[in-house]
Design goal:
The complex is a heterodimer. By secondary structure, chain A is of the alpha+beta class. Chain A has seven domains: 165 residues, 2-Layer Sandwich (Beta-Lactamase); 110 residues, Beta-Lactamase (2-Layer Sandwich), CATH 3.30.450; 117 residues, Beta-Lactamase; 96 residues, 2-Layer Sandwich (Beta-Lactamase), CATH 3.30.450.20; 71 residues, no CATH class; 166 residues, Heat Shock Protein 90 (2-Layer Sandwich), CATH 3.30.565; 130 residues, Response regulator (Rossmann fold), CATH 3.40.50. Chain A has 30 helices and 33 strands. In chain A, 36% of the residues are buried. By secondary structure, chain B is of the alpha+beta class. Chain B has a single domain, classed as CheC-like (Chemotaxis protein chec, 3-Layer(aba) Sandwich), CATH 3.40.1550. Chain B contains six helices and eight strands. In chain B, strands 1, 2, 3, 4, 5, 6, 7 and 8 form an eight-stranded antiparallel sheet that branches. In chain B, a hairpin with a 2-residue loop joins β7 and β8. Chain B is globular, with a radius of gyration of 17 Å. Chain B starts with 9 loop residues before the first helix and ends in a 7-residue tail after the last helix. The chains are: A alpha+beta, B alpha+beta. Chains A and B meet through α1, α11, α12 and β13 of A and α1, β1, α2, β8 and α6 of B.
């Protein structure tokens, strides 16, 4: 035991405070804790203000530690040094009498030692030797200081030189004074120790395996005071320890019993009533020599339950609040910090950190967290915001530090303790708010100015009115527009200006505004000063109980719009006429040509028959037939364009179809044009009318040929295409899988304008008489009706590429019915009967004759009702041939359906000029129902009838 | 490698703390004789951490240059033991050890010698006590003084950047009223820690057999 330093800050903190690592370093140990390693500090606390009196007293005072072997001196005051010349360093830590009284007689020394051991007060006179060797007769008064349990703590001794004044009466008085002072100190020590929170103290005699406890120890362990004073077995010590802490404490005590000196643990004990308390046990083992199995293990228990709870609450609060604490005592290089403090700064957990490490994380432009050079006012609070860069993550955070400067109560040091917490989010919000605010202010100012400028300068009239129609303000524009000045109108009723026809709508509009609905493009007429009404188009909104409206004079626009509307109407009319003219002109031209041929042929036919020149008859019949067929083809194309064409779609493999046509195309193209086909072997099938497809292809090829008057190359390619959402949108199609047939030429190409109109009916670039202009439009109609599309890609002098898209059909291609055996060879089986329904007697007659020629029996009727009668009769009918459009309220489709109801599986052949979609449904027919389009050759109808009747 | 802290259980850490406490108490007794004054040593806690973390820990807590006394040990477990002080603390320790009688300018000259001696006493006592308690012999090399930063001192001997484990102890010195804080680090590999762990288990068993009513 040395000349102990006063308790100080972290750097020289007493050992006991460091041995048990406190969760919250900013909080020092419990006040009044006995501290074996620092007896004078304990002494100071116990003696309180008296200590200072004792230290400054002129009376030489010496204090020794009664609890330690040999009672080493722990304190001497200045008066003692003056009297004896012995500095604290000369005597502290040593047995007092060794340097003081080397010549004292053994009897006196023995009595002294005995009294000290027994803790009894003693007065003795003995020769004392000063440091310089001189002597004096000293009077030693020793007063043991014990706690309430009677355990000796310290021995206070006063020493007086009585050599000169042995007999002086004044000495007695001085001695009385000494005694009183000592009594006072003693009483105070006792009281302080009792209130210091010490629950128990013990002395564990290791060799004897006996623990001697004081009265509080007895009370705590439920022992008799005498029993405790006699000593109890070591097992008693552990008996009240909480089971969860028992192992730990047994290990620690095991360490002490095996040679460790310092003991400092916190653990729980369970009291008699079952209550659990936290205690802090501190002790030290004193040994003589090397032998570890001997010695005294002295310690105390202090109840720290409340402190633990407070600490726990504080810890929870700090953790939850993300608050880190620190304590710094000026002059030291380190600060005590909490775990949260380290976490906030991104440092490794530590109890204390060098200021350098702490401040190193702070942004160079910001204030340090703890400024060692600060010269603060005591009691002042220092608050600062600063940025840090976390060493662990490199993240930049904003922190707030708030600390208070206090003078340490025990030392005179200045203590700076406080908290830090993260304010990054708050800073960000603050910055965002500030930006927002600054922006808003600027905007408001700007808008006000804008509004004023607008009000004055606007060419549009502005109006502020109440909901009852009273005008509150108008802007200067009213003067120019309507002749009213700014001062004419306020206070007047708006409705006095509104055209009577518009008043109702305006009232409705204002009512809508009062419901906070906005109004835009609200037109009404307003009377000007000159009495003329002008059309005003309003935009209005309500606010602050007023209508705010901006109006634009649209009178001129209204007039213009009306004029424009009329002009457009006229234009549309003329366009329609032009289109009709173009259509009829084109048709008339073609038909006239054809009719000329037919009429001429028939005329000649009649002449030749009359002349009896029958040999030439055939020629004219052929010519008339040819012209009539071409006319039929023309109407066919027209219908195809109008999409009223009746398609007989079936699964078709375009590759086969193209291969079948290749020879024909080659011949059509002539020797100057090379024909190439590039057919995708894996081509899908498509569902379309193969005849129409052939027709379309041929048309495309002929167009290509005409684009290459000097020869070139025609390429027909096929392929599959999968169109996604985007690709299909670009091509004006549905997404999906398509078969693509591509016909390209190396011809003259066409301009974008021409390409854009290429599908218009009768649009043609060919000289009059060379084309109908219906080819591409017909293909377009066919493609659209088949669910596909056609695209044109062309540039002048670079050729043209036409792409025909047809939807994929999942299924096998059907065989080509047209390739059946020539129909002329077929004859009817006996009794086969065909019901022919048509309102046109000529057709009925012709068909019936053809049927009879073929050996069929024909039943002819002129309308649906008659047909039904026949169907209802028991007559044999192998086939129903009917027109679609029939007089008498029952159409051909209905006849067919009724016939099928009566005669399931009845075969039907529709012969029609055009297929009414309502009648023909989606354009696709039920199995066993077929269509033949008028006009048709008699041979064709015969072949179809034979095929149908012959089919299973 | 698993979480270094998990190498030792809580009870094993407690037991190891007490083992080292016994060791440093013995060292304190030796130092008391050497110094002729009061010396108290205690070890509040033990941690097992990776050597890089240990280096970062010391560096952050102490900053700057460190002084270490190191000795190698081998036996049931082997490795390197270091007594580490911040440079400033080491001088204070030396002053405390040699006493006020020696003039300040001479203290600097004595520094290495005093440090070596002190370190030797402490490390030897610690290791010897541990060996004794664990009832296994340990051989020690001669002490050496090293100076440097945490990483250099705590690197694994011969290790090519491999993360070794450090048994990391805080040590509180109180020498002639001076409180000095330092560290004891035992750099060990996993097998040594495993062996140490077994021995610690034995120690726990023996302490738990301490029937305080009977013989110790």
């Amino acid at each position: 035991m040395g000349w102990a330093a006063p308790r100080a800050g972290p750097g020289t903190e007493a050992l006991a405070d460091e041995t048990d690592r406190m969760p919250v370093p900013a909080w020092p140990g419990p006040p009044g804790m006995a501290d074996e390693q620092d007896a004078p500090a304990e002494l100071r606390r116990l003696a309180g203000p008296l200590f200072a009196a004792m230290a400054r007293s002129g009376l030489p005072v010496l204090v020794s530690d009664a609890r330690r072997a040999g009672e080493p001196v722990v304190y001497v005051n200045a008066a003692f040094t003056r009297l004896t010349g012995l500095e604290p360093g000369d005597i502290v830590g040593r047995a007092a009498l060794v340097p003081l009284a080397p010549e004292a007689d053994p009897g006196t020394l023995a009595a002294l030692a005995g009294a000290l051991r027994a803790g009894e007060p003693l007065e003795a006179e003995l020769p004392v030797q000063r440091k310089d060797g001189s002597r004096f007769q000293g009077r030693l008064v020793i007063m043991p200081v014990a706690d309430e349990a009677g355990q000796p703590c310290f021995s206070l001794a006063t020493l007086a030189d009585v050599t000169a004044a042995r007999e002086a009466p004044v000495l007695r008085a001085e001695q009385c004074l000494q005694r009183r002072a000592l009594d006072e100190v003693n009483g105070r020590l006792r009281a302080t120790l009792a209130t210091s929170g010490v629950m128990a103290s013990w002395e564990w005699h290791i060799a004897e395996r006996r623990i001697i406890g004081d009265a509080r120890f007895a009370a705590l362990y439920q022992l008799e005071v005498e029993e405790a004073a006699r000593g109890v077995a070591p097992s008693v010590f552990f008996s009240i320890i909480h089971p969860q802490d028992l192992t730990r404490i047994r290990l620690a005590v095991g360490g002490v019993l095996r040679g460790a000196e310092v003991f400092s643990k916190e653990y729980r004990i369970v009291l008699q009533g079952g209550e659990t308390r936290w205690v802090q046990a501190r002790g030290r083992c004193y040994r003589e020599g090397e032998e570890v199995r001997t010695g005294r293990f002295i310690g105390t228990l202090v109840d720290v339950t409340e402190q633990k709870r407070a600490e726990e609450r504080l810890r929870v609060a700090q953790t939850a609040g993300g608050i880190g604490t620190y304590e710094y005592v000026s002059g030291f290089g380190t600060a005590s910090v909490s775990g949260q403090f380290c976490r906030l700064l991104g440092l490794q957990l530590a109890e204390s950190l060098p200021l350098r490490t702490i401040n190193a994380v702070v942004h160079p432009e910001d204030v340090p967290i703890i400024d060692a050079s600060a010269e603060p006012q005591i009691g002042s609070i220092s608050q600062a915001e600063f940025r840090i860069t976390r060493p662990d993550t490199g993240e930049l955070r904003w922190l707030m530090r708030r600390g208070e400067y206090q003078r340490d109560t025990e030392t005179s040091d200045i203590r700076f303790s406080g908290v830090i917490y993260d304010v990054t989010d708050a800073k960000r919000t603050e910055a965002a708010l500030r930006r927002l605010n600054e922006g808003l202010e600027a905007q408001v100012a700007e808008r006000t100015a804008d509004r004023n400028r607008l009000w004055r300068l606007s060419a549009e009239i502005m109006l502020v009115a109440r909901f009852d129609g009273t005008i509150a303000a108008v802007n200067p524009a009213w003067l120019a527009v309507l002749g009213w000045s700014e001062v004419d109108l306020p206070g007047r009723d708006l409705f006095s200006l509104i055209h009577p026809e518009d008043a109702g709508r305006v009232r409705d509009g204002i009512a809508a505004l009062s419901r906070r609905e906005g109004l835009t493009r609200f037109d009404s007429r307003l009377r000007g000063r000159d009495g003329a009404y002008r059309w005003i188009s309003w935009s209005a909104a309500s606010g602050e109980g007023l209508v705010n409206a901006v109006g634009r004079d649209v009178t001129a626009e209204k007039e213009q719009a009306e004029a424009l509307r009329q002009a457009e109407e006229q234009l549309r009319q003329s366009q329609k006429m032009e289109a009709v003219g173009q259509l009829t002109g084109g048709l008339a031209h073609d038909f006239n040509n054809l009719l000329t041929g037919i009429i001429g042929s028939l005329e000649l036919l009649r002449m030749r028959v009359a002349q009896g020149r029958l040999a030439q008859v055939d020629r004219y019949v052929m010519a008339a037939q040819g012209a009539a067929n071409r006319a039929a083809a023309l109407t066919h194309r027209l219908l195809a364009f109008s999409r009223r064409q009746t398609l007989a779609p079936k699964a078709t493999q375009p590759n086969q179809l193209i291969s079948g046509m290749e020879e024909l195309i080659r011949r059509t193209m002539g020797p100057e044009i090379r024909v190439e086909t590039v057919l995708d072997a894996g081509l899908w099938t498509t569902l379309c009318d193969p005849n129409q497809l052939e027709n379309a292809l041929l048309n495309l090829c002929i167009n290509a040929r005409d684009a290459m008057p000097d020869g070139g190359r025609l390429t027909i390619e096929t392929g599959n295409a999968q169109l996604d959402e985007r690709g299909s949108r670009q091509r004006d199609m549905e997404p999906g899988e398509y078969v693509v047939i591509c016909v390209s030429d190396t011809g003259m190409g066409m301009s974008a304008e021409v390409a854009a109109r290429a599908f218009d009916p009768f649009f043609t670039t060919k000289p009059i008489g060379q084309g109908t202009g219906l080819g591409l439009s017909m293909i377009y109609g066919f493609a659209k009706q088949s669910g596909g599309q056609i695209h044109i890609h062309s540039e002048p002098e670079k050729g043209t590429r036409m792409r025909l898209y047809l939807p994929r059909h999942v299924g096998e291609a059907e065989g080509d019915e047209a390739s059946a055996v020539p129909s002329a060879l077929l004859r009817a089986v006996q009794g086969e009967t065909v019901l022919v329904v048509d309102d046109e007697p000529t057709i009925r007659l012709l068909v019936a004759e053809v049927l009879e020629d073929l050996g069929y029996k024909a039943i002819e009727v002129g309308d649906g009702a008659a047909a039904l009668q026949v169907l209802q009769s028991g007559a044999r009918i192998d086939l129903l041939v009917t027109d679609v459009g029939l007089p008498g309220g029952i159409n051909g489709r209905q006849v067919a359906d009724a016939g099928r109801a009566l005669r399931p599986g009845l075969k039907v052949l529709f012969i029609t000029g055009y297929a009414e979609s309502a009648v023909m449904g989606s354009g696709q027919l039920e199995p066993g129902m077929h269509v033949l389009t008028k006009p048709f050759a008699m041979e064709a109808v015969a072949a179809r009838i034979r095929d149908l009747i012959g089919a299973p | 490698m698993s979480e270094p802290g998990a190498v030792l259980g809580e009870m094993e850490r407690d037991a190891l703390t007490e083992l080292v406490n016994i060791g440093v108490s013995r060292a304190a007794a030796s130092l008391r004789k050497m110094v002729g004054g009061e010396v108290l040593l205690s070890v509040p806690s033990v941690e097992v951490i990776g050597n890089r973390q240990a280096a970062a820990l010391i560096q952050e807590r102490e900053g700057g240059e460190l002084v270490a006394v190191w000795q190698e040990f081998s036996g049931a477990f082997k490795g390197r033991a270091l007594l580490i002080f911040p440079h400033a603390n080491s001088l204070e320790l030396v002053r405390a050890v040699v006493g006020a009688a020696v003039p300040a300018e001479e203290v600097t000259g004595l520094e290495d010698e005093a440090l070596t001696e002190t370190g030797n006493v402490i490390l030897n006592s610690c290791l010897a006590t541990m060996a004794n308690m664990l009832q296994r012999p340990l051989a020690m090399s001669l002490p050496q003084v090293l100076r440097g930063r945490g990483e250099a001192l705590l690197s694994v001997p011969g290790g090519a950047g491999d993360e070794g484990l450090v048994l990391f102890l805080y040590i509180n010195f109180s020498v002639r009223d001076r409180s000095i804080r330092g560290y004891i680090a035992m750099v060990m590999d996993l097998p040594s820690l495993g062996a140490l762990r077994l021995l610690v288990g034995d120690f726990i068993e023996r302490v738990m057999r301490d029937e305080p009513d009977h013989d110790l």
